[in-house]
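Q: Two folds, back to back.
A: First:
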Amino acid sequence: MWQSLLLLAVVSSCAVPSSGSYQQVASDDIPFGLNAPQTTIPQTTTTIPDIIATDSLPVAVSEPIDLFFISNSRIIKVQRNVASPANPAQALSSLVEGPSTSPEFVGLRTALPTTFAASVDVIRGVARVDATRAFLNSLSGLDQKLAIAQIVLTLTSRPGVGQVLFSVDGKLISVPRGRGDSVASGVAVTFDDYSSLINQQ
């Protein structure tokens, strides 16, 4: 009870009087520096450093393609990754390069010589391979057939290619098929013409 009366007395003594006179307090008598000049705290800003995006760096993209190499007198299909998007010229370059040195490719070879050079144009699903005369002259009869088989099987395994025509120095030529006969000059060959040479593993 007496605590409540004491609190009421303190509150009453601190209230602003509604009437009467007032007396100014001298500056030296104001406690705690309440009459000090007002200061403003400067506003601070935080700068966020730029973040370097690493996901925008170019990434090499590759894709697998089917290549056909030789084991004895048979054809073996293998896969190799090449730069994407793959094109017929890349496929021919991979055939010339030959199988990799990985253990699973031991015993495989290519009939295409390292000097092989040809242009490839694909028009309406037909790939025309134009090589030099030296390409055919450097191969035996069996390797000619196997080299043609490698090229045809590899190119017709690519999307958009169903047939292959061969020419030498711009002139259409006859090529051997897998079963031993040859097609006439200017006649296109297909995957099925050489499928009998594929070793079914």
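A: Second:
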Amino acid sequence: MFTGIIQDVAEISRIERAGGAARLWVATKLDVSDFEHGESISIDGVCLTVTEAAAGAFCVDVSSESLARSTLGEAGPGRKVNIERAMQANDRFGGHFVLGHVDGIGAVRRADRESEYLRLAIAPPAELMRYMVEKGSVAVDGVSLTINAVEADSFSMMLIPTTLSDTTLAGRKPGDKVNIETDIIGKYIERFLAARSGGITIDKLREQGFE
């Protein structure tokens, strides 16, 4: 479980590919001395497992499924990535429930600077639009964000200076691909409603006038 509060902008230092999967070494400013073998860590919003840690870096294995369903499939050495260690039971909960299970890859449509802020508009896969709700939560490259506006095929957020300085999102430009994880609460509600009411979905509720 993660919160979407990024702890470091790290860098992929080495990638070893074999049989459709990959092994990534990531250089980080975090203290890796207490990284435990088998602990979960989020890299650009993808939940992965630490296999080794030494000298300011750690290693994770990435399955062919994770490579295919996230932007890590196109990653190379030198790429900057957002990382967050899994939350502990006594942690302050500052973002929202983030599982590290990427729902799809979106594309940046607009990146408009407004003084110290950045208005970022993203077009997700069409099937994810039903989970985008004004003032709702979304994780973009592992960053917990609040949706400010929803259009027919895109959603937008206003990124504050802290988010821009502490994550990779400041460098996003139109056409860039990003990992998207929708709010797990909305997905569970849709699932429960469908099971109890003969296939009712969020889209069908909207057609009936519910927002």
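Q: And?
A: The chain is about 15% helix and 40% strand.
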